[in-house]
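Quick entry between incubations.
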Amino acid sequence: MIQETQIRINGEKHSFRPGETILDVAGRAGVEIPTLCHDPRLKPAGACRTCLVEVEGQRKLLPACATPATTDMAVVSESERVDRHRKTLLALYATDHPSNREASERGAPDELLDMIENYRAPTDWGAMASVRANRHDDRNPYIHFEPDTCILCARCTRYCDEVEAVSAITLAGRGSETTISTVDGLSLLDTSCEMCGGCIDVCPTGAMGEKMPLTRGDKPERELEKVRSTCNFCGVGCQVDLNVDREADDGAGRIVKVTSPPTGTTTNDGNLCVKGRFAYDFVHHPDRLKVPLVRGADGEFYETSWEDALQKAAAGLQGVSERHGKNGLGFVSSSRCTVEENYLVQKLSRAVFGTNNVHQCAAT
Amino acid sequence: MTNSIGEIRDADVLFVIGSNTSEAHPIIAMEMKRAVKRGATLIVADPRAVWMTTIAEKHLQLKPGTDVWLLNAMAHVIIEEGLTDDAFIAENTEGFDAVRERVKSYTPEEAEKVTGIAADDIRFAARKYATTEKAGIYYTLGITEHTHGTDNVYALANLVLMTGHLGKPSSGMNPLRGQNNVQGANDAGATPVFYPGYQHVTDPEAQAKYEAAWGVELSPEPGLDLNVMMKEVGKSIFGLFVMGEDILLSEPNVKKLEEGMNRCEFLVLQDAFMNETARFADVIFPASVFAEKEGVFTNSERRVQRIRKAVEPPGQARADWEILTSLANACGADWSYSGADEIYDEIAKHAPSFAGISHARIDSEVHRGKTGIQWPCPTPEHPGTVYLHENGVMRGKGLFSAVDYRPSNELPDEEYGLFLSTGRTLYHYNCATQTRRESGLDEKQPENFIEIHPRDAKKRGISTDDRVEVSTRRGAVEVRAIVSRQVRPGCTWMPLHFAESRANLLTNDAGDAVTNTAEYKVCAAEVKRIAAKDSETPRFPGTYYSVTGPN
Ligand code: SF4
Ligand code: SF4
Ligand code: FES
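Done. Structure below.
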């Protein structure tokens, strides 16, 4: 039995289920509370303090992400006191964070900068030079870590522990030198890392970012168009956002990176694996076939027009059918192609060539 | 799958058999990890110590090909200890008595001798599964790619039926589909016996329906399935049309296929890349990849999801559905499709399971935190079906099938002393025409390898990174050795992604008695050292394979 109880947020009543936090209820009710270290996939850490709210009867502000809702609790998420706290906190974060987007958004959009702007936090409290160790010599091909933009919210390391469960990265060092590292500072390639890229996905500031777009000098994520699609590798069918630079390749468009749709909205819940997130290079690979080919009398392939290739293919298949009967032909379709294309292959086999000799490869 | 992926995290028992989930289905594995963190019991049955065994409560490390023994012994325990769901059996199933009789002789003690799994572990797994309400079974090719693959599935289904683990959330029988659209290709009728939506070609009503829809006469004679078709190439099949596949890389026993290919008179290939099969092609059409076209894929949980055009295909390449339409018309047909959405509408019109699904409907629901629609979905108002077999078993009663253990087609002997199984790894994908063009993936696993147990390696003087020759009755390839406790003594394992040393030169093309799926998982092989490793840098950095066992 689900027990329904109520909580008040900014004067309005909302029901909640046992186990929900103030943030969960607020999220459902459309009340915005800023967060940095929170991720629905992870256990609450209550570390960054951006989500603090007033709770009636409590002297201190409480973290919405880590405080369970209780019956008749009265929460205030917008007040002078909360606002003062947010401004102070964000201003402090700003002292140790690059302020220009070009520098900070090398990986992904920087939510911290957005927040600093939205809440009009002062940005003139001086600047600290970060002394956190980087791993710029890591030869792994996919993941880049920029310590300057890291706010040590530990979403990445918690994701790697709690969701991917391989614990490849960890908080290392002490005090102001704390950084995100691997055992002995090894390259991710030499660790238990499975290159899922989840650490990139959860990072709120873009400190963890994709390496390939950086080395290629691609446009930042903000300027890319997201096209929602389905991953073309395994049978899970993860939803992906193809991030496309529309102008690239003379207007043909180019996939710059692949990101996962927000957690909670699709079957894959914001997660992807190494293939889904990083293996899109084949799309723009120079080895792609670009022109129809027919084999000449000398056994070599020659480029030809679509017209000619289609005519030759039709004549060849029809010839076999005439010489050996309808069942002298076989049609192999592919589980890599779409439902519609598989439908057309069986229709071609059955309706045009009169044979049921049609099967997809990997018939399992 | 009878359940949905989202239900996995709420399961209390996960029985995973013949599935290297963390590598083949990483996202499903994440859900399983989540369930285990929550306190669920994970039981993994696999000849290899796959990663999932590191977080499993029990690893049932059976000898390859002895699944039926294990599963029948589990059934034996469940019946003997009175753990069956008798009400469910009486109401929803048929044929239980035959199974009860059959499994009598499959005692856990006897099973231990054949499978190598301790009798008590079999009892543990049986009890845990039978007495937990939210208990799901998950399996993949490790179960089906055997000459007795269908028996394996029946034996699993028996367990499900006798414990009533069906039609409820987080419990059920869940084959995890290997490729992105295996489900969808079957759904669309790319099988020799079914029109779209599993309407049998021998059913006169279905035939009449499609004859009317397509305006042609159709054949009621079932076609050849892929495995038979490949064996018939050059015998009764003399022309092939191949779309998006490299049959020479992915079919078992390719040497025989190549011989047949030489007698094949005409081959049309439609693909995005050149591949091995192209050597025999007469015409090649440059096709598109998923990011260049519209359409749908259907995932393991029967969820129909959209792919959308993000970029233009290169050069003169075209979307596959456009090419197919032009080809049909060049052959005298009169197809006119303006887009993939129209093709889908035609599928939905004649196949009741998909009747309520359309591109427009899927697109309109994207922003509501939902993606795709799970069939069966008979009307546009129908919400789709989350788990099959709710309220009793679909299509009448669930049928028990008594099955017996049959040894695999080819077992190790004096000449070929080791079991060889094949499979995929996290870093590559099937024929790998795509993933092997990905520099990063190649860095992690640059070349083919074979895992061999330290005991067998020692006997043959082999150490890690040595070059070895792997041979079977069908052929030989050269790969690197990885000495590893991940495999059982007497067993070896090799991935099938690498064109320059094709695992399928080795594998057995003996097909399953019912489905003809080839026996990729078990054959007899021998391994011989050719040369010592040529460098001190490990060839497979940081992969799970370079360690001596699960850590
Ligand atoms: S890519 Fe995945 S496995 Fe590797 S460090 Fe990041 S979260 Fe961990
Ligand atoms: S890298 Fe990103 S996710 Fe990780 S601690 Fe730093 S800011 Fe947080
Ligand atoms: S989001 Fe609540 S403390 Fe960080």
